Amino acid sequence: MSCWMPGCPALSMCRGLAALPIACLERAKDLKTRLGILLHKPELGHRIGTSSKLQLGSRRRDSSQEVLEWRESFDQLLKSKSGVTAFHTFLKTEFSEENLDFWLACEDFKKTRSKTKLASKANRIFEEFVQSEAPREVNIDHETREITRKNLSGATSACFNEAQAKTRTLMEKDSYPRFLKSASYQDMTKQATSRGISKRPHT
Length: 203
Prior knowledge:
The chain is mainly α. The protein has 8 helices and no strands.
């Protein structure tokens, strides 16, 4: 059918067909935009996953470095939660974990703000660790024990300071060097060192 006559249905159809590619093009552009967004989502997920892996790797490196820092000083060991846990496990093998437990109890005791709780905690700690024949008696001299007993009459956050310091010194001079020489810590340092080497960039 010819499209030259005005008002011819075929002419309208031709015009409609001529307009169709433009509409299709606009639709295609819209679809392309949407597909582009969808296509970028896996890439975004990949970036997030990579970031998470990097953060995990960073934590592992931090953990490895922390293990190596424990041998620098006893303070470094006590500052580390995982260090305290490892040291406590070692002390159990020597049946002397009560020294660290007492030190930790004193640290917690110092954070107590309520005077009522302070007094009750002080008595509980004294009965468990300090008094003669206590269930988990720590190794301190008689003079320090008596000073601590007198401090209980007016319990303050400092009433265990002397006993705690004596126990800390005992651990630092006696148990801590043995911990550093122990097979368990030596294994940890080897693993930490090997992880550190494997993480170094290759040149």
